[in-house]
Design goal:
The complex is a heterodimer of chains A (about 110) and B (about 200).
Chain A lengths: L2 H22 L3 H22 L1 E2 L2 E2 L1 H32 L24
Antiparallel strand pairs in A: 1-2
Helix pairs in contact in A: 1-2, 2-3
Chain B lengths: L2 H7 L9 H9 L1 H20 L16 H24 L7 H18 L10 H23 L12 H26 L8 H4 L3
Helix pairs in contact in B: 2-3, 3-6, 3-7, 4-5, 5-7, 6-7
Classes of the chains: A mainly alpha (about 110), B mainly alpha (about 200).
Protein name (chain A): Na+/H+ antiporter subunit C
Organism (chain A): Kineobactrum salinum
Membrane topology (chain A): Multi-pass membrane protein
Chain lengths: ~110, ~200
């Protein structure tokens, strides 16, 4: 097993963690973080698998670079939207329930806001 | 011939000597054009959702003396690093996106330190800066199409210069978009009166 395959498998693992978090967590910021973990896993798979005998393949690298920038912009926009949503409704999840967190795990279910 | 070998064979025609930059700004420049389009849309949406009218809130500034002292060293250094990354992108790892990210980081640092940043107000300058990279890119692409060759095809002798021009515009725009998105999500308490009434 080559080291690049190891990178790709780590990417698959990250994708799994992120997907599980995205499904299990209800807090919007946590969901956003989980979504970013999925994205990072995808980038790692793309870069890890795209190797050939003379070193890395520049085409997927360029695409991953594009993807990173787009994901940063999307994350920033999502944070702006989440903050706006929080200011307007006082809620941190999309559930119908009352404010802050719902069934998120951990002692700090609420945000510091 | 597989794709990496094809890229290596035609690298001399691209105007730059680094393969990733050649892919980003020549062979697959469609992706990059659409990418900066996505960034512009995200930036405009972020600004229009901003809850502070001036985008320049004195309450958000830090009064940390250490940060102020560091700023005087960091800001010129980071600007120089951004310029280097932009310039180096044509022959080694680097390029517009990395340089733009460093520019945005410089802007975030300046904003947290309370340096005056008039250009971040939602006026003509900010809007112009947001669309500058996209506009330059589109102008080059359309010029290629009008002058007889394909959309987004650069003339062979000027490919390097055109790519560098596009990258300068992209760097400024990316830095400004990321900074605007940061500024649009204020770190203050929920003290906006027009929103507090509704909740």
């Amino acid at each position: 097993m080559s080291v690049h395959l190891l990178y790709a498998l780590a990417g698959v693992f990250l994708c799994g963690i992120g997907l599980a978090g995205f499904v299990a967590l209800r807090h919007l910021l946590r969901q956003l973080l989980a979504f970013n973990v999925v994205g990072s896993g995808c980038f790692l798979i793309l870069v890890g698998l795209a190797q050939h005998h003379r070193g890395p393949d520049p085409v997927p690298q360029a695409l991953v670079l594009t993807g990173i920038v787009v994901s940063i912009a999307a994350t920033a926009l999502a944070i702006v939207l989440i903050r706006r949503y929080f200011h307007l409704t006082g809620r941190t999840s999309l559930d119908g329930g009352p404010a802050a967190g719902g069934q998120t795990a951990g002692p700090s279910g609420n945000t510091a806001e | 011939m597989d794709l990496p070998a094809l890229l290596g064979a035609s690298l001399e025609d691209s105007g730059v000597s680094h393969p990733v930059t050649a892919v980003l700004l020549n062979f697959r420049s469609y992706d990059t054009l659409l990418e900066i389009g996505v960034l512009v849309i995200a930036g405009i949406a972020g600004i229009s959702l901003a809850s502070t009218p001036s985008l320049e809130d004195p309450e958000l500034r830090s009064s940390d003396a250490l940060l102020h002292a560091l700023l005087r060293w960091f800001v010129p250094l980071m600007l120089m690093l951004a310029a280097y990354l932009l310039w180096a992108g044509s022959y080694r790892p680097g390029g517009a996106f990395q340089a733009g990210a460093v520019l945005a980081g410089t802007g975030v640092l300046m904003r947290l330190g309370g340096l005056p940043m008039d250009f971040i107000r939602p006026k003509l300058l900010l809007r112009g800066g947001l669309v500058l990279g996209f506009a330059v890119f589109l102008l080059v692409a359309v010029t290629g199409a009008v002058s007889g060759s394909a959309f987004l095809a650069y003339p062979e002798h000027a490919a390097g210069a055109l790519i560098f021009t596009i990258e300068i515009g992209l760097t400024l725009s990316i830095g400004m978009i990321l900074l605007a998105l940061f500024v649009a999500a204020p770190v203050s308490e929920g003290s906006e009166p027009e929103e507090g009434d509704e909740s």
